[in-house]
Specification:
The complex is a heterodimer. By secondary structure, chain A is an alpha/beta fold. Chain A is built from 10 helices and 10 strands. Classes of the chains: A alpha/beta, B mainly alpha.
Chain lengths: ~260, ~425
Amino acid sequence: MSFKSRKIKFSISDLSLFYGDKQALFGVDLDILEQEVTALIGPSGCGKSSFLRCLNRMNDKIDNIQIKGQIALDGMDIYDRSLDIVRLRARVGMVFQKPNPFPKSIFDNVAYGPRIHGMANNAKDLDAIVHKSLQRAGLWDEVKDRLDNPGTGLSGGQQQRLCIARAIAVNPEVILMDEPCSALDPIATAKVEKLIDELREKLTIVIVTHNLQQAARVSQKVAFFHMGKIVEAGDTAEIFTNPKDERTQDYLTGRYG
Amino acid sequence: MTEKSSQHPSNFLTSKQLHKRRKAEQRFKAYGISTIIIVISVLLLLLTGIIFKGYSAFTKTEIALEIFYDPKVFKESIPKAILKMRDTGSLIRRALQKEFPDIKDSDEIRKALQLISPNARISLIRKVVEDPRLIGTTRLTWVSASDNINLFIKKPQQRKLPAYQRQLDDQKIAWIDQLRERKKLRQRFNVQFFTNGDSREPEQAGILGALMGSFYTMLVTLLLAFPIGIGAAIYLQEFAGKSRLISLLELNISNLAAVPSIIFGLLGLAVFLNFMDFPRSSALVGGMTLSLMTMPIIILAARAAIQAVPSSIREAAEGLGASRVQLVFHHIVPLAMPGILTGTILGMARALGESAPLLMIGMVAFVVDIPHTPLDPTTVLPVQIFSWLRNPEQGFIENTAAAIMVLLLFLILMNLAAIVFRKRFDHKW
């Protein structure tokens, strides 16, 4: 345990979200700390995925959506008019529930982000970025001989790690993960969890999960969502062993959800 | 006890009911198979009919004549000789007299001249233009037989008909038999059918003019309708968002795809010819008119294909910070391409077979010259088929069927090209 206090990466205050007339989030406040894994847990439809997607503005394009409140990344409001959404997404990457590699080669999948953001000056730089990203995602040894093969030809777990490699290739500060292991088998899940733990050293991770054991294994902080509100948030160990709110207790003991 | 066990779901269906179920399934299968058999047999009937009628157009009859290339006829410099068509006719007349010494009067010689295609005179001049050394010599020269002879050779059963039902009288038949005996009659592959433009003489009429016309028209249609159609589809699908105006626009595009094609012809006539004053009967105007008709089809197909791109791919690209334009051109369009191409080929195939709108803009004119640019007056394959069918000469019937075969071949080639392109763009996700 390090005692130096961690910086606040995301500061969310009074965030409300409406899909048309239906309100999905009710004045949510949460601070997300740097170099930690924050797990968002809660029953289906409680608003945790909607919340996650606000953090890199993936919700913007939905019809009739209305977002109120403030989300600050390193003190900068991400819904500010002057903010460029492309640069925000380069800083805040995302991994989705279902592995979604592009129907291109493994190399091109990882190289796509660096290419569109102009991160490599020449082919050698790009090779180095791809190599490093695949290595960090723990996939290099498995795919180094077949970088030209289509990414869609890998197994489910490999595909998801490829998607993580693709996300970290643009060197983001935060990675948002929306139930990244729900489509994977236990062995692949274990690999991804190990990877999440390693990535934490360099970046901040926010993960939505339905798997409470997973939340307990990988996260340092937990936020429990219920009916569009955060009922309880805090250190993972604290919440799992000593939940203060009755609803948290009921959820963790499997009484609903 | 037995009553109770019948409550178990596996006992709900008696073997009789199961039998009924299976029967229903088999019946449905039988319906499906019989419809396919009907469709295939109709198609086969159509194809064999056309091929049976048209295959003979690919051969033609030629007659050999001892032509004396009279220096008097070709005395001037060669281009001027072209003007003296009647004089080459005299060469043929002399050759015929030599061939059939029993010809007595001018009536008979006129009858003998009817054995030979009127265009033979031009072909003699062409021979001299190609090789001036022919002048002053006598050569055995193969010239096209006339339409009636051509048909008679191809359908010998005519011989058995009574004289008043025949196109040829006894004397002509006798001459033909003589020529055949002397080995001065032959059947050749009809090269001219593929190298000539239209003609009033069925044995000289060729498909090349209409083929080139169709090619240029399709080219113009594709160059206009494909980029504009895809552009419109991308804009409507990815950038336009939702508003009253946009949904009105969408509704109208769907309606446009169902508008009768002759209406587009009227539009082309009013706008492209009367208002913009583009060259009449040209492939350019034809292509522009057909592109109006094809565009809504391409837009609809492209929008459906774009919509079918999985949202996970969109999210992946957006999550990496791809801009809207990058998302569209790096991911959406390549993934939608197979669907877009399918729609385009469907639209183009419809345009290729279209004749009504082209009649409105004057592409039904009789054009002998083969078009060299999209601005030249021309006709297209379906209109050519239509024009030939209207001609009274028997020989045009086989030409019509042959032209239909060429049109079908063109269509098959286009579809093959589409399949090849689609294979190249195909991928899994």
